[in-house]
């Protein structure tokens, strides 16, 4: 049996006719950049996330970059974030000339650890504390970070809070959705995301009229009006084609999320029944609504051997992420070393993502668990 990590073709089959219709409409209109399709998606995403504004941009990475720019964060500033996330989180900080400073993660959720945040901030010199301008909590794997503590910390230090919600559209913390709690919420429509485009795309949410205005200008080279530039922006515009495709998919997002959550529950039941808890730890579902962009297990031993065994059995898996950011070669100049963030380093060596997309069949999930059992037997 084949069980790919993700099978977008199955999803496409269910919405093919709608996709072909909206794309044909765009081809006929020849209106490809921004425009009514982007505006419609912006309104729908703002409504879905519970924010006043949403601004379509060219990717999830650019969502982070433009948010930092809109907040006035740049040369010499410091932004605190997680060392255990996709590269774009810290890379975007560097791209605007700021310096990423890391705090370790919670061992159960892999989200940034509030206690580590406080320890890192306390260890900063007085000069560094004056340069500390922002914090980027990451809602990893589809579960919100512990935002009450993060926001209290941000208030104490007068920081801009940028939620990296690239993996977490629709996830909830209490009664609030990802992207609605900080000053900015950054989303990715990379094809493999729960809500994916047919290429790159992203969105920034905010409740601030001022930040919304800055975002609107910055995504179009800083022009206001056209050809008149008071600030330097970039080409961060969202294509109409991608916006139209995401709009079609948004109608189905909650049903797909329901399917992912049901598949996660099925894994829990089967893995527990198989007595595999001595070999692995299941994902911690701590907050209100985990959307399972990934279903990540924590293995006490033989992670890489298991992955190879599953691969040979036709099962796709992935390691998110094999090298924490503080140990990446390009960040050597930050002065971090192995052992600085032991929880993130442990996660990099012991976690493994299993297929969890909503189109998975029960037979496929049972096959995955049977193969894990066979390996440890």
What does this structure look like?
This protein has 13 helices and 12 strands. With 377 residues, it is α/β, with parallel strands linked by helices. The protein folds into 2 domains: 8-250, Type I PLP-dependent aspartate aminotransferase-like (Major domain) (Aspartate Aminotransferase, domain 2), CATH 3.40.640; 253-376, Alpha-Beta Complex (Aspartate Aminotransferase, domain 1).
Brief summary:
This protein has 13 helices and twelve strands. It has 377 residues and is an alpha/beta fold.
Mean pLDDT across every amino acid position: 97
* Overall helicity: 40-55%
The separation of the N and C termini measures: 20 Å
Q: Provide the low-confidence segments as ranges.
A: none
Q: Strand order within the widest sheet?
A: 1-9-8-5-4-2-3
Shape: globular
